[in-house]
Amino acid sequence: MQAEYDSNNIFARILRGELPCFKVYEDADTIAFMDIMPQSDGHTLVVPKEQAVDVFGLSEAGAAAAIRATQIVARGVREAFQPDGVVISQFNGAAAGQTVPHIHFHIVPRYVDQPLRGHARQQQDMGVLKQHAERVIAALAKLKG
Ligand code: 5GP
Hints:
Blueprint: H1 10-15, E1 23-26, E2 30-34, E3 44-48, H2 60-81, E4 85-89, E5 105-110, H3 126-144
Antiparallel strand pairs: 1-2, 2-3, 3-5, 4-5
Helix pairs in contact: 2-3
Active site: 104
GO biological process, one term: nucleotide metabolic process
GO molecular function, one term: bis(5'-nucleosyl)-tetraphosphatase (asymmetrical) activity
């Protein structure tokens, strides 16, 4: 059973440039930007450009490209924020916690003694998000050499 894709979901609109985001990475198949309601500092989303609701609707090529981009961006997030650990997660269906019906991967830095903030709960200050994006962009540039 394939979930039907809603081309007006919020990430589709970001991908079309109709809504803003703090973008940190883009290639032919994916973009990555800061989560607007981060669960921790540096929480970044990797979003395939392919129109798929979840992992079940994503092509094999799209899945490979998404994981490749997720690894690249996660390295940048780790370099920028020096967390104690990094969670990479991806939710399929509302029952699993998915709130935006366009496939995406979460990169969530974890810091010892800092509990995660709620999922999709509290909007981060835009100035802070911008600074965080700049840190990831700089780290990715450094890692690329
Ligand atoms: P999901 O619950 O679908 O796995 O994750 C959706 C994520 O998108 C949540 O972490 C939420 O904070 C984030 N989010 C929701 N709306 C927006 C938005 O308009 N811009 C950005 N950058 N992130 C969003």
